[in-house]
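Q: what sequence does this backbone want?
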């Protein structure tokens, strides 16, 4: 980097890896310490490095010249060779409509477009990107409250064969979480046109979709990841159809779907053999019957299970989890008021690969649950990194507990959220 008299940053480099990171640090430091931006511009900075800098650097107040220069250079980045574009949440300036509209014209081979919360792409530009960027496979738009129609809705007969779609999309990854303005018709069209390719679908926080819209998820038979958290329209009847069609699912999130009961979990176990990650948070109608069924079905292949605030789940169901699901790496059973020390002791003894355990809000737990912590296989191996005991008011002297395993990298969170940990030797 050369900072000449007019403060123009001139960069020429072909370096990669560690050298490139050092260059980034120099550039960011130069940007932060620069006083006069009237002549600032970028020259031959590598595109991937520039995008990282623009996402990481904090905008200095009243830096209009810098912002303008960044936006101008962003426009220069748009070319037929650009395959991935990720505008992160911390990107320090607003992306203009002219930039969004230029993507579909200048980047026909764009494969990945990710736009974090806080940046708003207009509907017209987004629809053109989907139409003109024919190889686009991953689309992520988070928390955009201004988009109603991601794509122009078409009249779709829900019983029509998918192969009749005359203009399919190639999306394999779709994440529109917390986009609460997206219309049901637009989502149905997206699923219809992507049904033969879509493997990852995240609709968490999209509470506006009713059961008729969510039912069309069943078209996407290649799904391996499905996040439906906070989907008010999801119920046993709809999920039953999804589980019968989407039999390749491996990761599923049904948290806060208040109309989901044991019937959905039993249907899942009957139709989907390969579940490894399962989040069932705050399902108040879930009982021990469903949990025992999934424990026996998925046993050692299950590596993540979240059951926090499932009020009807008791020690009976959790004993089945301890018996069958011994490969669990992350488990959350927080705010289950009937859970006793015995369950925690058994989990620490049997879960050899445990990495994180959350027992927060389990009011009956005491220090007795940690008596075997120092001999736990996951502690001895070093895999257990986090034990959350926040809002558990019967624990004390957690520093003493940790002192008995001085070489461990374990972190324990106490009632007040205070973090206790040892330095690893």
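A:
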């Amino acid at each position: 980097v050369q900072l000449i008299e007019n403060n123009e940053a001139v960069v020429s480099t072909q370096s990669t890896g560690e050298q490139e990171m050092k260059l980034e640090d120099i550039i960011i430091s130069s940007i932060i310490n620069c006083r006069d931006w009237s002549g600032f511009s970028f020259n031959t900075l590598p595109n991937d490095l520039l995008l990282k800098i623009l996402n990481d650097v904090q905008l200095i107040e009243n830096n209009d010249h810098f912002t303008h220069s960044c936006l101008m250079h962003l426009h220069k980045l748009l070319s037929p060779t650009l395959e991935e574009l990720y505008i992160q949440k911390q990107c320090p300036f607003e992306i203009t409509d002219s930039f969004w509209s230029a993507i579909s014209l200048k980047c026909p081979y764009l494969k990945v477009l990710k736009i974090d919360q806080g940046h708003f792409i207009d509907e017209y530009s987004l629809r053109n990107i989907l139409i003109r960027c024919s190889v686009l496979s991953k689309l992520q738009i988070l928390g955009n409250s201004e988009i109603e129609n991601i794509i122009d809705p078409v009249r779709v007969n829900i019983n029509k064969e998918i192969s009749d779609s005359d203009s399919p999309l190639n999306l394999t990854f779709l994440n529109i979480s917390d986009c609460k303005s997206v219309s049901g018709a637009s989502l149905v069209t997206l699923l219809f046109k992507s049904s033969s390719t879509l493997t990852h679908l995240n609709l968490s926080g999209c509470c506006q979709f009713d059961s008729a819209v969510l039912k069309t998820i069943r078209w996407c038979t290649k799904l391996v990841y499905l996040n439906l958290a906070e989907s008010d329209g999801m119920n046993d009847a709809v999920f039953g159809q999804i589980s019968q069609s989407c039999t390749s699912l491996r990761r599923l999130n049904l948290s806060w779907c208040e109309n989901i009961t044991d019937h959905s979990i039993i249907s899942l176990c009957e139709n989907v053999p390969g579940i490894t990650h399962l989040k069932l948070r705050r399902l108040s109608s879930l009982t021990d019957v469903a949990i025992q069924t999934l424990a026996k079905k998925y046993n050692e292949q299950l590596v993540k299970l979240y059951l926090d605030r499932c009020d009807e789940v008791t020690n009976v169901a959790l004993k089945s989890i301890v018996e069958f699901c011994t490969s669990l790496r992350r488990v959350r059973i927080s705010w289950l008021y009937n859970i006793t020390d015995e369950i925690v002791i058994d989990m620490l003894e049997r879960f050899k690969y445990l990495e994180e355990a959350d027992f927060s809000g389990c009011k009956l737990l005491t220090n007795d649950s940690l008596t075997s912590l120092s001999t736990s296989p996951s502690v001895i191996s070093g895999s257990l990194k986090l034990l959350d005991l926040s809002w558990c008011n019967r624990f004390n002297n957690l520093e003493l507990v940790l002192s008995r395993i001085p070489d461990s990298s374990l972190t324990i969170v106490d009632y007040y959220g205070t973090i206790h940990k040892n330095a690893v030797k």
